[in-house]
Amino acid sequence: MDTGTLTTMLVIALVVVVLLFLFRAAGVGRRRPRLRPLAPDSRDRYASEWDEIEMKFVDSPEQAVREAEALVMSVLRERGHPLTERDLPQEMQRAHRLGYTSKDKTEGMRQALLHYRAVMVRMVGPEDRAQREQRRRELA
């Protein structure tokens, strides 16, 4: 083999290694975590706590966003989701950025709460309207 062929093969091997590293870092090919289902009483408790957080938002948006993040993390933990930053749902990562670094603080916190709500719905499951209304009446 001449030097040109050897150099070409070495460059190709290096490119393949770099691409594999980039795919792994980006999470391409990673399996989704197997999540445990929530018990019905846990679902009800999380839904009730979420309602309280949403009601707090008007008077204390920063506290509500902090509590929303903590609640979502609790749900993820209980379901067995890996809690490393790169494994967290995209909505969770966006919500964290919006809640703490947005230029328009109030709008950023509102958007953050909406992202946390999307994760809650996905992790806890949708709730039927009758249950939600009953719980809201109990809270009032």
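The above is record 1. Record 2 follows with the same two-line structure.
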Amino acid sequence: MMKVVILCGGVGQRISAETKNKPKPLIKIGKISIIEHIMNIYIKNGFNNFYLLLGYKGSKLKNYLKKKKKYNINFIDTGLKTGTAGRIKKIKKYIKKNENFHLTYGDGLTDQNIKSLLKFHNKFNKIITMTIVRPPARWGEVKIKKSLITTYKEKRAAESGWINGGFMIVNQKIFKFLKGSSSEMLEGKSMEKLSKHKNLAGYKHKGFWQCMDTLKEKEYLKSLLKKGIAPWIN
């Protein structure tokens, strides 16, 4: 089964009131944690082979999810202060030559069709296909031409309105671009280098997408669920 890699190691400083005693992916939206919501999205699309890249309070996340028999999970300890690129390098030994795998963050929800994302990736055959969305500008901004990302800028003022929404398909060749220290961020020089080499494709998702970076965003997601209009479930 195609592997689903989820970055779960960050401290979650913008929502520190919730993450003081637990990792961000364990914050509950309704009756279950946001990481379960994310994994359920993939299961709904036919993918249930998860690799969770742990860091901050990773043991709590592991102990909680080990009881959930619904999920097929491999837990990978990637260190406390490791960057996103550094965490991904920890799974190199699990990825075969030219193998594609899913990659996303442990704090974002979407109603997109993951199978369509994979089909798009296979069509363009780039090292990374990134879902790009139009939420409030704060994340990695991209410029796109004919489905190819021509420019990638992380956390700068939006110009085009399309930003990094996570939910990526990544090819094993990514490891050639991850040559920095353990603190290296995928969203920095690695992405910029990929775009310069014309190896970063953008999949436009115009439906629902929302990350949970702040308490306000958490409450927004909870309100959608409470009203019975949670797009990532319905």
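Residues 53 and 121 are 23 Å apart (CA to CA).
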